[in-house]
Design brief:
- 42% of the residues lie in helices and 19% in strands.
- It has 226 residues and is of the alpha/beta class.
- A hairpin with a 6-residue loop joins strand 6 and strand 7.
- The protein has 10 helices and 10 strands.
Length: 226
Amino acid sequence: MKVAIIGGTGGQGLGIATRFVQAGEDVTIGSRTVEKAEAAVEKVKHLLGEVKNVASAANPDAAKWADVLVLTVPLAAQKETLISIREGAVGKPLLDATGPLESCIGGSASRYIDLPEGSAAQRAQAILPEAKVICAFNNISQSWFMQLDEAIDCDCLICGDDRDAKALVTPLIEKIPGVRVIDCGPLERACIIEKITPLLIGLNIRNRCQFGGIRVTGLEKGRACS
């Protein structure tokens, strides 16, 4: 599949893009300006060598080109960015990794922001009603994505209202070594997934690390008994 990382020039977007390029997917990194996207592509090539399966584009063009979109922007930029890709997102899965967070006093941790729509992913769905929004990648730190020689020791919790879209993106996400997708149900559960992010940030700060994540256990045992 063709994957566009919308707003893919920050740490999280660059990490996800690099992992998908490493897995052999065709990736376009999008940004508000082509120049910023080109700089991100050069970073990927610096990490992986002269790979041919990564390109740059402005966000609207990246969205039109792709089969699957991954949104990796701060909350403050979410609405504007989504409006800019409205045409290209119609009918496509959009993996929204937006964290509705604000820094606490001193900037040492993050606090969850309650949104009128219920969650950042639900707000994305309200802005782009013709896209198939899936909450994803919220609970995997950008530090993990950049450990390119290691499998990521985290599950990817997802939720969304379109079952076919979730089934389509699950094997794509699981091409990232070590990552297992856990379908948590409808999009209304995005607020639960998103609220785990500030918990993990706080745990990482407290334990002076950058790799705290989530693993869900026991699910295979339940399937074996059914």
